[in-house]
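Thread: quick sanity check before group meeting

JM: Hey all, I'm pulling together slides for Thursday and realized we never actually wrote out the predicted structure for the chain we discussed last week. Dropping the sequence here so it's in one place. If anyone has concerns about the input, flag it before I start.
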Amino acid sequence: MKENIRTLQQKIITCTRCPRLVTWREQVAQEKVKRFVDDEYWAKPLPSFGDPQARFLIIGLAPAAHGGNRTGRMFTGDRSGDWLFRALHKAGFANQPASVHRNDGLKLNDCYITATLRCAPPQNKPTFEEIANCRPYLLSEIELLKNVRVILGLGKIGFDNALSAFSEIYGLKMIPRPKFAHGAEYRLNSNLTLLGTFHPSQQNTFTGKLTEEMFDKIFRRVRQLLSQKFDY
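JM (edit): ok, ran it. Output follows.
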């Protein structure tokens, strides 16, 4: 059977390529934290989420141990997700401003969310080997998402992996190589634009490194880019 987005996600959630991550995600689900002691954790690799026909693709780092690893949906159950879905709703990409659990009715329009890594890593620090193990899933996904025109890398790892994945698939050779920065914007080819933003982690939002206005401005720029004519 020819692979599509749905069958790829089914393959992802059964993955056991990284023993350290399998052990960690299951350990977290058993030990939990006090505020989620009554929750049943997902504790599997996370499938991507969104509109398979999307022109806007978001690439993050990895699930949070008590966020996505608990809820089973990317950027759901932690403060980063609160920021992301609020911004997506403001920009018209989401039908509601919050993502609470897998069955809360949230839908994305013209937007698709994926990640560099599908399992929560200890201390939020994946190894290079673990990123490499997960990379084929990201590459397959990009090849299946035929309508993507704007890519947003969340944080440096999301940005760098977005760049390398699209470069590999489309044979792009950009000299000098695009560098990550908040608000960075690069036209990869006539059809693709890559943007960068600081990750909406508590480390960035609590310190004011990333403000709500800074974050919202990125999504307004995405809208502007999607309104422009591309060379299909």
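AS: nice. The two ends are 28 Å apart (CA to CA). The first helix runs from residue 5 to 12.
JM: adding both to the slides.
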